[in-house]
Amino acid sequence: MKNILRELREHNKWTQKDLSTKLGVSTRTIISLEKGHFNPSIKIAYKCSLIFKCPIEKIFCLEENYNNDMKEV
Fold first, then answer.
1. Can you give the pLDDT at residue 33?
2. What average pLDDT does the segment 34-63 reach?
3. Per-residue pLDDT tens for 27-42?
4. Using CA atoms, how far apart are residues 34 and 6, in angstroms rounded to an integer?
5. Could you tell me the pTM of the whole model?
6. 10 Å Cβ neighbour count for 27?
7. Is 59 within 8 Å of 45 (Cβ atoms)?
8. Phi and psi at residue 61, to the nearest 5°
9. Quick check: 2 and 34 in contact, CB under 8 A?
10. Residue 25 DSSP class
């Protein structure tokens, strides 16, 4: 699964620690999410949606849909 978490986080000038605190997860989780090594639970994806004020599908998408879906972001 691909995502734009890092871009959103950096746009808000947040560190990985800042985002991990907001989501209630470890910094390692943020690192793994940003690198695409970990797929978010629905709870984490939903919290990201609330924090960044955008739909889940704008933040996360399946790799096979990445080029099409992320063009609209």
1. 97
2. 94
3. 999 999 999 999 999 9
4. 6
5. 0.82
6. 14
7. yes
8. -155, 160
9. no
10. S
